[in-house]
Each structure stands twice: as C-alpha cells, then as structure tokens.
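Example record

One chain of 449 residues, shown exactly as stored in the release files.
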Amino acid sequence: MQMRAAAHKARVISADEAARLVASGMWLDYGITLCQPDVFDKALSLRRDELRDVKIRACLTMRPRAVLECDPLAEHFHWFNTHFSGYDRKQHDAGRANYIPGNLGELSDYYRRFIPPIDVVVFKTCRLDEDGYFNFSAANLWHRAIAERAKIVIVEVTDGPPYVFGEDNGLHVSEVDYIIEGDNQPAPELPNPPPTDVDVAVGKLIADEIEDGACLQIGIGGMPNAVCEQLLKSGARDLGVHTEMLTEGLMALYRAGLVTNARKAVHPGKVTFSFGFGSRAYYEGLHRNPDLCCLPVDLTNLPHEIMRNDRVVSINNTTQIDLQGQAASESDGLRHISGTGGQLQFVRGAYASRGGKSFICLSSTYEKRGQRKSRIQFSLTPGNIVTTPRTDVMYVVTEYGMANLKGLSVPERAKALISIAHPDFREGLEREAYEHRVIPRGVTFGRYD
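Predicted structure tokens for this chain:
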C-alpha cells in the first residue's frame, strides 16, 4: 500500500473553512456512494457565486448534491461521473453531469497513471479508529488511489455508516490534511423492490445452473437479486462470494448459511467485495462483521484476480442485445443510463475461471411511451453503447429460455437468440435476419430450426 504524506499534521477545521480551500478552475473529487460528503457539499454550494469552472468527479450518487441543486444551469459547478445512479442520470438529462467511460476495475490505475493530481479530495468516513485510520465503510473502490497523489485531502467524519473490515479500506491520519465534523445522518438506503414474475422466471433458469461451491458475482437490479431468492430454495451449498457490489440478495444467502466461502482459493472463508449499499438491516449486517472483507476495486474486478477462484458465476443485467450477441447495458441510444461498471471484467474473469460461467439476463420486452418493444433486436438502437462484445457473451437468459453463444456462428447465434425472444417478435426478427443474410437459406441448425 502506497502511503500519502500530508503536508502537516491533520487539523480540525469547519466545513466553511474547508470550502474556502476551493478556488475557481480546480478539480475536486467527492468519491463514491457512501463516501460522498454532505456537510462539505452544502458549504461549498454557499460559495456558488464566488466560483467558476469547478469540476467535481464522483460515482453512484445516493443523495442530492447541493452543488448541483444550487446551480441548475451548471454555470459554476460541473459534475463528472464514472457510473450513474438514478440521480446522476437525471443530472445528465438536464445537462449538468458528464460520463467518464471506464471499466471500474481499472479506475485505481487511471488515478495513479493518467489523471493529474486532484486539487481537493473530500471523503465522508467513519471516525478515527483504534489503529489511526478513517474507515471508508462499505465503499473501498479506488478511494486510496484518488488520495495518494491529491494536493489536499479532507475527511468528513461521521457516525452514520457501518464500519467495515477490509484491505486498505481507509486513510491513516498521517495521510489527511484536514478533518471536518459530519452530520451523523444514517447511511443512505437503497430500496429493494420485490421481483417481478419475469425476474423470478429468469432467476429460476440461472439458479438451476449454479453448482455447489460456485463463487458468485451478482450485479445490481431486481433480476440478479431474484437469482439469490431462487438459490435460497435450490439446495446449492458451500457458495462463495467475490463480487464488485455486495447486494441484499447475497447477504440473504450469507445469513441463510449457504455462503461459507470454504472452497474459495482467494480469501477463503471471507465474503469479498468492493462496495455495497442497501437497507438499514443490511448495514447492520455489515458493521464490524469479521466474515466480510471490503477490497480495493482492482482486487475484485480485474479478470486475472477473478479467475483465481474456481467456478466463478457472473450474473448481470443488460437492456438490449442484438442478434450478433452484442450486449448494450448502459445507454438508451444517445441517452446515458448507468455505465460499463464491472460487467465486462466479470464476464471475462468468469470465463477464465476453471468451470466458470457468465450470464447476461434481460426481460424479453419493455414498455416505452405505451408501446411494447423487444429487448432482443436485429441491430442495436443507433447510438447504443456496447458494454459486452459479442465475442465475450456466454449465456443469455430471458424468461423464455437460455442460450449459450460460445462457439456459435453468426447465424446460429441469431437463431438461438430469436428462440428466447418474446413469441410476438420472433417472426419479425427471423424475417430481418434472412433479409440481411445473417441467417443463410438452406442450412439447418438442429434444435433452433
């Protein structure tokens, strides 16, 4: 671990004094999820009229940000984000936020190699612990990499979030320039809506493919969490967890005793993850839990780290897939929705794992402006961003079935994907495929014909 040397012994200052360290034209970093500051953010927003061209990097914002709410025309503050939450998406729609493309597992490296030193870094953390560290709670990610080369490091200390054990999950007091008092409000919660019938159908199909001793990565969303609900009933045992986000569903498996991590090669006996958020009960389950290990994102997401465990199972959502097998999971045409996240890296890491499997799941249809549309399309919506290339996709799952694309030719892929599309759209998809010679005439492909 590279340690930052602060310019002076850490000083306790007010939020207003901390905000006065910011000058026009500076780059700031607010960090990710639970580590984004609230008291500092409010103090900085009060300086709006004094500042111009202040640029702030962040990720997965879970509460409204005062600097954005006070500046609706983005004349003073500019928001740059590596993965959108629902709030970030609304800010982008309004022209106040900008996306930073990247695989999340590479972000630490971006800060260490490519991004110039940040002028001011402000993280919300737990209070100083017995070893002299400000714990990042359930949000390790790339926070240390941001701070290592920063010009000024400020921590906003609070009693709100859980204290989470891990590797390099915090800053030592010797690395910090200034300390400000937080507002001690509880960690923001993420609602976990009940699964739909489609989610349950997809969850059952995937759960049937998960063997005893599998090591799980589950993405965010109702459909991946439905897999966890089905695993509670499936009888799978001795599961492991090595994931980017620790979801409510994974914690439910852990509480049920189905997650032992006994067969993991890396961090055996430990649930390993890089960040998490959920309900109040979820946070209580994380607080000082010795079975959990919160890691920097380069130790959870890089494929060569993922593949060290056997039988890795990666389960992620997509919003659209074409008949070639390209998965577009982060945009709706030119409208940005979320981000690449860890999807591609876990797809690749699971494939490289001995006995590993990756699943890309989606509902067969969706409603838009009162019209039902197929998520499986002959070609992607213009402007849609490919998150997982066709060469990497393994299993694709809808409520109508599952198709493994590995080793299939383009026409076989098209046939396989049409077979799991909604029945109302299959004939039209097949017609387009024949018209554009994606499927040749006079060739049979076994069970897809």
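Notes: Residues 11-181 form a domain with the Glutaconate Coenzyme A-transferase fold (CATH 3.40.1080.10).
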